[in-house]
């Protein structure tokens, strides 16, 4: 199976996915697509030898360029890893049930537009939460509201800073995201 990973930032999850799938023969990350020209994820793709493509808002929402690229590349699955835009309806329709996202919190809490990265961990700490974690879910037309696939939790100590929480959450992402994606691909 062929996976396209969509990114907007550092790409540590994208790198983890590339390396995980290279160990087996179930699937491959065939392309990494970024909506940010300066995303470090594009540097990672270069270093990993994974084809990558930068696209802008016009490409994504006002053209069929990305969908055509996905079809040309015979992509079967789309994985969002730190991707911060809503997926346009033509791609949602073409890949219904085959687009997966990871969110660094226990949805439905701390989700929705604008809740990403350190903002999530700051809110969790400010609200004195006792735990946080990751949510892996299918993607639909609204931020962070698709069908739930998997959640993993970690405790938040009163002495934890948002950076310490981020570190614990990233650890959960690296441990679980590739395995969960592999599981749902294998089940289809
Ligand atoms: C991760 O925290 C992920 O849960 C969220 O965005 C962040 C992406 O980090 N969706 P990276 O770009 O994979 O390093």
Summarize the structure in words:
The chain has a single domain, classed as 3-Layer(aba) Sandwich (Rossmann fold), CATH 3.40.50.170. It has seven helices and seven strands; from the N terminus they run βαβαβααβαβαββα. The chain has helices spanning 12-22, 40-48, 57-61, 65-72, 89-94, 118-126, 162-187; strands at 2-7, 28-34, 52-54, 77-80, 99-103, 131-138, 148-155. The protein has a seven-stranded mixed sheet, covered by helices on one side. Helix 1 (12-22) links the parallel strand 1 (2-7) and strand 2 (28-34). Helix 1 runs parallel beside helix 7 and helix 6 (118-126) packs across helix 7 (162-187). The longest helix has 26 residues, at 162-187. It binds 5-O-phosphono-beta-D-ribofuranosylamine (GRF). It is an enzyme of class 2 (transferase).
Supply the key terms.
188 residues, alpha/beta, Rossmann fold, seven-stranded mixed β-sheet, 7 helices, 22% strand, membrane, Phosphoribosylglycinamide formyltransferase, transmembrane helix, phosphoribosylglycinamide formyltransferase activity, transferase
What general outline do the C-alpha atoms trace? globular
Number of domains: 1
Low-confidence sequence ranges? none
Alpha carbon gyration radius: 16 Å
Average per-residue pLDDT, rounded, comes to 97
User: Helix and strand succession?
Assistant: EHEHEHHEHEHEEH
* Class inferred from helices and paired strands: alpha/beta
What name goes with the CATH superfamily?
Formyl transferase, N-terminal domain
Name of the top-level CATH class: Alpha Beta
- Main sheet? 7 strands, mixed
- Distinct small-molecule ligands in the complex: 5-O-phosphono-beta-D-ribofuranosylamine
Let me know the number of strands: 7
Keywords: Membrane, Purine biosynthesis, Transferase, Transmembrane, Transmembrane helix
Binding site for N(1)-(5-phospho-beta-D-ribosyl)glycinamide: 11-13
EC number: 2.1.2.2
Binding site for (6R)-10-formyltetrahydrofolate: 101
């Amino acid at each position: 199976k062929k996976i396209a990973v969509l990114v907007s930032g550092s790409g540590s999850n994208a790198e983890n996915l590339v390396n995980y799938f290279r160990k087996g023969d179930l699937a491959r990350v065939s392309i990494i697509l970024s909506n940010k020209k300066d995303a470090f994820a594009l540097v990672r793709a270069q270093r990993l030898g994974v084809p990558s493509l930068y696209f802008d808002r016009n490409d994504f929402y006002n053209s069929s360029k990305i969908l055509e690229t996905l079809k040309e590349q015979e992509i079967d699955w789309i994985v969002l890893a730190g991707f911060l835009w809503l997926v346009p309806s033509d791609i949602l329709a073409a890949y219904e049930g085959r687009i997966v996202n990871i969110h660094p919190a226990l949805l439905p809490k701390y989700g929705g537009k604008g809740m990403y990265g350190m903002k999530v961990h700051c809110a969790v700490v400010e609200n004195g939460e006792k735990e946080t974690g990751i949510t892996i879910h299918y993607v639909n037309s609204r931020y962070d509201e698709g069908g739930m696939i998997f959640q993993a939790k970690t405790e938040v100590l009163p002495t934890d800073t948002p950076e310490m929480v981020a570190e614990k959450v990233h650890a959960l992402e690296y441990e679980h995201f590739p395995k969960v994606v592999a599981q749902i691909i294998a089940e289809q």
